[in-house]
Design a protein that fits this description.
A hairpin with an 8-residue loop joins strand 6 and strand 7. This protein has five helices and seven strands. With about 160 residues, the protein is α+β, with helices and mostly antiparallel strands.
Length: about 160
């Protein structure tokens, strides 16, 4: 695994997400959750997510096939200050969730973080493999009844 990967996706003159994909199907490249999150956004949101996916695959040394792209999910990760409602004004950095081949290539002792930026016609992304931080470890909430409720916090990506 590399220490970092980067990618750029141009979207100047394009109007639909499928035009970003070079013949691949939207449903193969973007997960259902990504499609829901991007539908209300502009084409730059789709391009940013695609750039993030490609950067992660470069980090992992995998080719950007539809299958591999679809196994890298890029979604906003609410910050600890987020109230979780529509009025939230906190920035939500992208979080990475891996399945399939990308998950087997990732080092479980590291977390993959992605930064995405946009110009007027390109989306740019950098993916880094970094040491785990305390907030990367899911916390278990045990109510006074003693029953296990579940996990809170981010997914390992």
């Amino acid at each position: 695994m590399n220490r970092w990967g980067s990618a750029a996706v141009g979207y100047a003159g394009l109007t639909r997400p499928v035009e970003l994909l070079g013949g691949m199907r939207v449903a193969d490249v973007y997960t259902a959750a990504e499609r829901v999150r991007s539908t209300a956004g502009t084409l730059e949101h789709w391009a940013g997510r695609l750039a993030g996916k490609r950067a992660v695959l470069r980090l992992l040394g995998l080719p950007p096939t539809a299958g591999h792209l679809g196994q890298v999910e890029i979604l906003p990760r609410p910050s600890p200050a987020c109230r979780g409602d529509a009025a939230c004004l906190d920035g939500h950095p992208p979080a990475v969730h891996l399945t399939g081949a990308p998950a087997t290539r990732a080092d479980p002792r590291r977390r993959i973080r992605v930064s995405i930026s946009h110009t007027h016609d390109q989306a740019l992304a950098v993916a880094l493999a970094s040491a785990l931080l305390p907030e990367d470890t899911p916390r278990v909430v045990v109510p006074s009844s003693g029953r296990l409720l579940g996990h809170l916090g981010g997914r390992r990506g």
